[in-house]
Amino acid sequence: MPEPTPIQIKSLPGIKRDGTRLEGDVYVDGQWVRFQRGLPRKIAGYRSINRFLSGVPRSIHEYTKDNLTYIHLGSAHAVERLYIDDSFNTSIIYNRTPTVGYTDDDENVWQFAVDTQLVGGVPTPLLIAQVAPNGTCVCNNDGGEVFYGGLFDTTVLTPLTTIPTGFNASGGVVALHPYTVVFGNDGYVAWSIPGDPTDFTGTGSGSLNVTDQKIVRGMAMRGGPGNSPSGLLWSANALIRMSFVGGDPIFDFDTISAQTSILGSNTVIEYDGVFYWIGVDRFLMFNGVVREVENNLNQNWFFDGLNYDQRQKVFAFKVPRFGEIWWCYPRGDNTEPSHAVIYNVRENTWYDTELPNSGRGAGIFPTVFRKPLLTGVVGNPNPVITRITEAGDTRITEAGDTRITESSSVPAYRLWLHEEGLDGVDGQSLQPIQSYFETADISLPVQSQINRSTHVLHMEPDFVQSGPMTVQLKGRANARSPEVNGQIKTITETAETSEQQIIYFDDQRRELRFRFESNCIGGDYQMGLILAHVQPGDGTIIG
Fold it and tell me: d(Cα 487, Cα 492) in Å, to the nearest integer?
């Protein structure tokens, strides 16, 4: 009998969904797992910090001042505002939905921007809110309304009435300080006077048709000497750069690409000065030129599984600590974002996960706040709401206000704090988070040209670990034979006996994989250097 050989149990970072399972060296399956330093680790937990939003927000804006993060959330029928303190407690919710000049619609999608108005030399930050019924179609040409109000105010927003007559602001809004820019149908762009985001008719304002299709998103960018402020504008088929030049034209527009695409208005995100977004059939980036982001792991899996009728619900957010960009999207027959495909910029790899609680509706990473905020898509059907009698439609308690408590027939939705703790926490409910990963195939015929099965005798686990984990040996005799799953073994957090220091097996497969899982309250892990002791097994190639 040959002496067993120790081998390292390690695959390349990422989760491979495209192609066959055998032909790659990347992990082949996983859930709620990320990669750091090339190794798997569990994604952190989440908890609800507010349970009384009146609808499913599709847009979030944040602004931090004096240790308070002010959040505005736009759902189909409302704009709501709250703040979060540095202990993650939320204030009451204020309803800022316009009551004048606003067209309510089930398909409404909001975009928000903040710019400063100078009144008597005193700078006042204003929230600029644009809305249009863009929920079904990114190229919708109907509607288009713009509102504004003080960023820290609690009153309803006011219609912005100085937009040029005939200008349909159905595309969106972006702040290119000191200018505020709105855009809409047929490639039209309008900008305010400098220093007053409410004035689109005075000296310094203007409008122009810059491309042939509707502009759906704008982002500020570095303009360089003499060309600041600058921004990028995404239309249905082009990427346009908008640069300040002064003089009579004020802004110059140049087409960076006339042969690009965008899947949805909320798929664009900036990461360290580079812009990433999803086109209708590939992932794209702009770092001075438009380039495709290579994805050989799950590009087909994403586009083939996407519910294309719900493309406008796809949204992006980032987790910079781990170098990640998340795109959350409705998969299969789901009508809400149920899964996420993740690009790790630092590791240059791709993976994915199913989202918790039936999905998420919108997300943002507040830079000062340091943890992602995401909205839920499942409402509490009969919430008990505490109302402030003098304010009307607000929720939750705050000392010093007169309140009444009542039941509501309108569902209430949650605001979730992610990258918090290790479990799923919703009020008094505490749930474990299932996290697992499965290695690529270990195959002696492929890796060593030895036409034998791999016989595993035992394994030496190496994890930074909290709570018990399990490991299961899986595999098959050949690529078309049925899967054979071995016995599930427990990896204890602390080895209290010598028998718990290693995991004993007596299994063999020609195509062999290991599946590691954590699924307990307080469970956590970071993978280290795991050794398996193996030897050649039999030569059977049919299972």
Answer: 16
For 262-283, give one letter per residue: b (16+ CB within 10 A) or e: bbbbbbbbbbeeebbbbbeebb
Token digits for 280? 């209708």
Question: Would the pLDDT of 401 be above 90?
Answer: no
DSSP per-residue string spanning 21-41: STT-SEE-EEESEEEETTEEE
As beta bridge partners, residue 127 has 114, 149
C-beta atoms surrounding 253 within 10 Å? 17
- What pLDDT does 398 receive? 43
Give the pLDDT confidence of 329-354 residue by residue, as tens digits: 999 999 999 999 999 999 999 999 99
Q: Which residue has the higher pLDDT, 110 or 398?
A: 110
Note the pLDDT tens digit of each residue in 460-518.
999 999 999 999 999 999 999 999 999 999 999 999 999 999 999 999 999 999 999 99
DSSP letter at 439? P
- CA dist 379 and 493 (Å) reads 37
Burial class of 22 by CB neighbour count within 10 A (0 to 12, 13 to 18, 19+): middle
Q: Given the DSSP bridges, would you call strands 531-536 and 5-8 parallel, antiparallel or unpaired?
A: antiparallel
How far apart, in whole angstroms, are the C-alpha atoms of residue 473 and residue 207? 64
Mean pLDDT of the chain: 92
Is residue 292 pLDDT above 80, yes or no?
A: yes
* The pair of three-digit structure tokens given for residue 316, joined into one six-digit string: 């992006």
**Token digits of residue 468:** 């018990």
pLDDT at 407 over 70: no
Residue 229: cis peptide before it, omega within 30 degrees of 0 = yes
SS3 call for 447:
helix
d(CA 349, CA 359): 23
Which structure tokens are listed for 87? 């202990």
Count the Cβ atoms, other than its own, within 10 Å of residue 371: 17
* Distance (Å, whole) CA 278 – CA 267: 6
Alpha carbon distance, N-terminus to C-terminus of the chain:
24
Distance CA 324, CA 35 (A): 10
- The number of beta carbons lying within 10 Å of the beta carbon of residue 515 is 19
pTM: 0.94
pLDDT of residue 376: 97
DSSP β-ladder status, 315-319 and 109-119: unpaired
List of residues 6+ apart from 377 with CB closer than 8 A? 56, 336, 337, 357, 358, 359, 360, 361, 413
Identify the pLDDT of residue 146. Answer: 97
264 touches 138 (CB < 8 A): yes
